[in-house]
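Write out structure tokens for Phosphohexomutase.
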Amino acid sequence: MSRIWGGQRLRELGKPVAGNECIGESWELSGVEGNESVISEGFLADNSLSEVIEVYMDEMVGKKVFDQFGTQFPLLIKFIDANDDLSIQVHPDDALAQERHNSFGKTEMWYVLDGKPDAELISGFMPNMDKAIYLNHLQNGTLDSIMEHFPVAKGDVFFIPAGRVHAIGKGCFIAEIQQTSDITYRLFDYNRKDDQGHQRELHTELALDAIDFQYISDAKQHPAVTPDVPCELASCNYFTTNLVKLTHALSRDYYLLDSFVIYLCIEGSFVIEYSGGKTTVMKGETVLLPALLSEVTLHPMPQAELLEIYIQ
């Protein structure tokens, strides 16, 4: 997707980026109306995600997921290339999003694929902030100065619950896992203008009821990963994300999970072996396993890294 702050790095994941296009996002798996994913292979090819869920229901996504979300897929998976700073922003929680927008809220997480030497992510306020201090800095155009800035490197993990003010900085290349929601309250956009000479809309009044001013001391994580052992990066009511570094064949048993499983290949390639077939997954590709498929074996070719995502 074209973005004012986008770049060219999505080519590294096999995504089409033409000429000098500023492409900021690749929506890998989406149930968002107007940008819904379509099945690319197999006898269900060319069917939308919601159409497949409507037919196969809990066999596709799991009983508890289908009971809660129906045909709406609950997660949105993206790759993001920030060639410039994104706006400082916040997302509402479920209650506020339902009240205002008849939508889910937006809790998300970032996994850093790469970062340029000066790349930073913003997550939360500095200590001892409150609404009055925030409004003063917002009015003076100095909001950036009271935010927590974190230098980033490959493998860093950030969990961003709804209500936490945040921003992706210039030079960050990340994978994002989030609730299915496209609601963003933009607080500050560095006074930049689009190609029509207009500044982008801010949502400062809407954001006031959404912001959590609490200081968070552990916003950045960098977990140690053992090869061929799934490492939990983040887990909440909305999703669980594991990092798997494959060096040997790894069997996964999802019999007790009652959820779909997503594989997001971020390095190398691997083969998924399952009852009745095999599928090769290349760097930058995303696979959705139906809840009905309870056992698979992953074979690296010869090595691979993937994010494994599901709902517990």
